[in-house]
Amino acid sequence: MGQLTQEVVRSFSKIENTRQRLLLTRLIESLHNYVKDVELTQDEWALTIDFLTQTGQKCHAQRQEFILLSDVLGVSMLVDEINHHKHEQQTPSTVFGPFYLPDMPVRDYGSAIFSLLDEGQLPLLITGRIVDQDFNPIENAKIDIWQTAHNGMYSGQDPEQAIDHLRGVFYSKEQGEYAIQSILPVSYQIPSDGPVGTLLNFAERHFWRPAHIHFKIQAAGHHDLVTHLFIENDPYLSSDTVFGVKAPLIVNYQHCEYSPEIEEKFNISSAYYHIEYQFVLSKE
Ligand SMILES: [Fe+2]
């Protein structure tokens, strides 16, 4: 360690919490090593400061450019990899992404997260159970769901959509059952109008994410699960721009004909698509 690096590290030595001190100390060492390794020029330093400044300036309540930056650099998936290997039966986790909004409406079992379908559009019924690693049902698990509309945009990004459109909170029933009505998600491009967009263009990388539905599932006594369900045969499954795809999260959907039973249970009066998926949480 160089003299300057040592001196800077020492200047933080009064931080009592050892974990916090370690995080900061290692960050300083890594940054100093990087600067020495690449022999960073003054211009490159200024460019980096400017890039990070622009990234911060692009953030607001419904836009998180720093999470997007972490995602396209693979840092989000690296953090995920280190932290989520608790139990082999557990449903794999993936990136949280920048489009989550808290405090969305609590909706009844089987109800829809859209208010109206487009003409000819079929609803997507997602059903299954929330269970623990021993496949015991989990009652009252909180299921937060969010996804894009057919135009590839989330509410909050798109002024045309009500803020709670294609978002909602559900609770699992006694046997862990859940049922949600949505629409098929589409592949979409992450926002390209900020510094992350400039970076991807510069690197000649594409902006696409394969179609997916986001879930955040929480239950007392269990680890939170943040994950997606990806749709089979999407052309971007092998080149997700945020590196988030894991094979067990890829699902297929069935086209189902109108059924009076389904109409009575879920108020679906047409043909519909169906996905069945069991989410497995690990115990704390
Ligand atoms: Fe997403």
TrEMBL record:
GO terms of biological process kind: catechol-containing compound metabolic process
Domain Catechol dioxygenase N-terminal: 17-90
UniProt-listed SUPFAM superfamilies: Aromatic compound dioxygenase
One term of GO molecular function: ferric iron binding
InterPro entries: Catechol_dOase_N (IPR007535), Intradiol_dOase_C (IPR000627), Intradiol_dOase_core (IPR015889), Intradiol_RC_Dioxygenase (IPR050770)
UniProt keyword terms in alphabetical order: Aromatic hydrocarbons catabolism, Dioxygenase, Iron, Metal-binding, Oxidoreductase
Cofactor(s) this protein requires: Fe(3+)
Positions of the Intradiol ring-cleavage dioxygenases domain: 98-262
Pathway connected to this protein: Aromatic compound metabolism
Keyword Iron in record: yes
Family of the protein in this entry: Belongs to the intradiol ring-cleavage dioxygenase family.
PANTHER family, alphabetized: DIOXYGENASE, PUTATIVE (AFU_ORTHOLOGUE AFUA_2G02910)-RELATED, INTRADIOL RING-CLEAVAGE DIOXYGENASES DOMAIN-CONTAINING PROTEIN-RELATED
Protein name: 6-chlorohydroxyquinol-1,2-dioxygenase
Origin species: Acinetobacter indicus
